[in-house]
Recover the amino acids of this structure.
C-alpha cells in the first residue's frame, strides 16, 4: 500500500475502523491506488457521510422540532 493511501486512511478514524471490519479491502488497496476511491465511497455509504444523508438528517431534525413545537401548543 502506498504512503499516500496510508495517509488518507489514517486521517479518519472511520476509515481505519471500516478497514479493520472489512479486511478484504487490504488486498485491493495493496494492489492499486485507484481502489481508494471505491473504498472511500463504500465507507461513506456505510456511515452515511454523503451530502444527501446529511440533508435528510437535517430535514428529520427540523420535522422533529416542528412536531415538538406543535405538541407544546
Amino acid at each position: 500500500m502506498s504512503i499516500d493511501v496510508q495517509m488518507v486512511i489514517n486521517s479518519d478514524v472511520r476509515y481505519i475502523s471500516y478497514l479493520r471490519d472489512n479486511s478484504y479491502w487490504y488486498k485491493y488497496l495493496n494492489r492499486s491506488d485507484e481502489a481508494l476511491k471505491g473504498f472511500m465511497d463504500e465507507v461513506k455509504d456505510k456511515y452515511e457521510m454523503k451530502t444527501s444523508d446529511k440533508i435528510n438528517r437535517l430535514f428529520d431534525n427540523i420535522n422533529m422540532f416542528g412536531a415538538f413545537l406543535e405538541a407544546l401548543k
Observations:
- The mean pLDDT is 92.
- The CA atoms of residues 19 and 25 lie 6 Å apart.
- The longest helix spans residues 51-72.
- The two ends are 59 Å apart (CA to CA).
